[in-house]
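Re: that backbone. C-alpha cells:
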C-alpha cells in the first residue's frame, strides 16, 4: 500500500481534477482524490501537483550513447544517417551497449517523470544478437523500475531476418504470451519499420505477420519531410498512400512525426483509426516542420508525445517537449493548451500503445504517478498550477515518481540505482 497525501491538485484524467490523496495497492490505483486513511508507505504531496506518469511514445534509447555527435546537427538526413551509423559501428553496438544506453536514457526519463518509454530500436548490426539487444534493454529498464515498450524496428534490414528476429525476441522475452504485454505490465513488445523511406513493402508485410501472430502493436515513422521526398522519388507516391497499400493504415498502427501531412491524409488516418506520436523536439531541429497536432486531434486521432532519440533531440525530457509542443502549436493552426499537451504525454501516448490502464489516475489505473513540487520561486505568482507545469519552470523535474505503486524516484533521486554509476559505466564504454 502506498498513499500520496495532501496534493493541492491531482490531474486524474483530461477532464477530472481534484485535491487530496491517492492510494495504491498491488500496483494499481485504489482510491483517487478522496481523503483516505493513511496506510503503508506515505509520500507527502503538500504544495505539489500530482499527474499520471508520463509516457514517452517515441524514443531511440540507444542514441543516448551518441548525443551531440559532431556532424549530426544542422545537416540533412542523408548526412545524419551515415554519421550515426559510423558511430554505432565504431562503438561495436551490442547487447551490453544497448543495456548501458537504455539505463542512462531510462534513468534520465524517470528523473523527469517518464514512467513508460517506447523504444523504437532501429540498429541491428549484421551478425548481432537481436535477442541480446532486446533483453539487455528490457533488463536495464526493469532494474530501474520503469515500464518499457520495446519496438523491434528495422532500417534497411533484410526483411526475412527482421521478421525472424522479431519473432525470436517475442518468444524469448514474452514466452507463451499473446497480446504483446507481460503479465505484470512492465514489458510490451511491438514491431515497426523505420518508414517507407528506408524499408520495402516486404518488411512491412512480414513484420505485420509477426504482429498478427502474437497480437503486437505496430509502429512506424511517417511524413518527416524527407520521408515524403524519398517516397515520391522512389515510388511516385506519398508515404500515407504507400502505408495504405501495404496494409499499415489500421487501428493497431501508430505513426510518429507526421509533419508534412495534408488535410485529406488527416481524414484518411482518422477513418482508419490510426494513432499518432508528435515529436517536436526532434522535428524542429531536424528541420522537418511542425506536425499539425491540433488538426490531428480535432479529426479524432489520438496523439501521443515522444522525444525521439539522442541523435536528434539530445534530451529525453518529455515534459520539456510538451512545453515545446504547446509553444509551437500556434505556428501551424489553433493553439494547444497546457492540459492538452499533458494529455498527449499521458493518455494520448497510452492510446497508441493500446494500454487503457496507463495515462490516467482513475481507480483501477496502473499506479504510475509523478509528484511535482510547485511551491518554489519558479512557480511563484502562478495562478493555475497545472498550466504552470508547462508554462513555468522549463526543465522541471518531479520530486517523486511512482511506477506500479513502487517509488522509483524519491526526493529527486533514483531509488534503484546510482545516477553517477550509470553515467560512469556508459562513459567507460563509449569513451565520452
Ligand atoms: Zn524517431
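Recovered sequence:
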Amino acid at each position: 500500500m502506498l498513499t500520496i497525501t495532501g496534493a493541492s491538485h491531482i490531474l486524474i484524467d483530461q477532464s477530472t481534477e481534484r485535491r487530496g490523496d491517492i492510494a495504491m495497492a498491488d500496483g494499481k490505483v485504489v482510491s483517487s482524490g478522496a481523503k483516505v486513511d493513511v496506510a503503508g508507505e506515505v509520500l507527502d504531496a503538500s504544495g505539489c501537483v500530482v499527474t499520471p506518469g508520463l509516457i514517452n511514445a517515441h524514443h531511440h534509447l540507444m542514441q543516448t550513447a551518441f548525443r551531440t555527435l559532431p556532424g549530426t546537427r544542422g545537416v540533412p538526413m542523408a548526412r545524419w544517417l551515415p554519421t550515426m551509423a559510423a558511430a554505432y559501428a565504431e562503438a561495436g553496438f551490442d547487447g551490453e551497449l544497448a543495456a548501458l544506453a537504455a539505463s542512462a536514457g531510462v534513468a534520465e526519463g524517470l528523473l523527469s517523470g517518464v514512467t513508460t518509454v517506447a523504444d523504437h530500436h532501429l540498429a541491428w548490426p549484421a551478425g548481432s544478437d537481436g535477442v541480446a539487444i532486446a533483453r539487455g534493454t528490457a533488463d536495464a529498464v526493469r532494474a530501474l523500475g520503469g515500464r518499457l515498450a520495446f519496438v523491434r524496428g528495422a532500417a534497411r534490414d533484410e526483411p526475412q531476418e527482421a521478421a525472424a528476429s522479431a519473432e525470436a525476441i517475442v518468444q524469448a522475452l514474452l514466452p507463451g504470451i499473446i497480446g504483446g504485454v507481460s503479465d505484470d505490465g512492465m514489458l510490451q513488445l511491438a514491431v515497426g519499420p523505420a518508414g517507407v523511406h528506408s524499408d520495402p513493402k516486404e518488411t512491412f508485410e512480414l513484420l505485420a505477420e509477426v504482429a498478427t501472430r502474437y497480437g503486437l502493436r505496430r509502429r512506424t515513422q511517417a511524413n518527416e519531410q524527407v520521408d515524403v521526398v524519398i517516397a515520391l522519388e522512389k515510388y511516385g507516391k506519398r508515404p500515407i498512400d504507400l502505408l495504405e497499400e501495404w496494409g499499415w493504415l489500421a487501428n493497431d498502427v501508430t505513426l510518429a512525426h507526421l509533419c508534412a501531412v495534408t488535410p485529406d491524409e488527416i481524414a484518411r488516418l482518422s477513418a482508419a483509426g490510426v494513432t499518432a506520436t508528435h515529436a517536436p523536439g526532434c522535428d524542429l531541429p531536424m528541420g522537418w516542420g511542425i506536425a499539425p497536432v491540433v488538426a490531428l486531434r480535432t479529426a479524432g486521432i489520438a496523439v501521443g508525445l515522444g522525444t525521439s532519440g539522442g541523435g536528434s533531440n539530445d534530451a529525453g525530457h518529455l515534459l520539456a517537449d510538451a512545453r515545446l509542443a504547446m509553444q509551437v502549436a500556434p505556428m501551424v493552426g489553433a493553439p494547444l493548451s497546457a492540459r492538452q499537451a499533458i494529455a498527449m504525454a499521458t493518455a494520448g501516448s497510452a492510446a497508441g500503445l493500446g494500454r487503457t490502464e496507463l495515462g490516467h489516475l482513475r481507480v483501477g489505473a496502473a499506479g504510475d504517478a509523478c509528484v511535482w513540487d510547485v511551491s518554489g520561486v519558479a512557480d511563484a505568482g502562478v495562478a493555475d498550477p497545472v498550466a504552470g507545469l508547462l508554462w513555468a519552470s522549463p526543465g522541471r523535474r518531479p520530486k517523486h515518481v511512482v511506477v506500479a505503486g513502487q517509488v522509483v524516484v524519491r526526493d529527486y533521486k533514483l531509488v534503484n540505482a546510482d545516477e553517477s554509476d550509470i553515467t560512469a559505466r556508459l562513459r567507460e564504454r563509449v569513451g565520452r
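The two ends are 42 Å apart (CA to CA). Residues 58, 60, 221, 256, 282, 308 surround zinc ion (CB under 6 Å).
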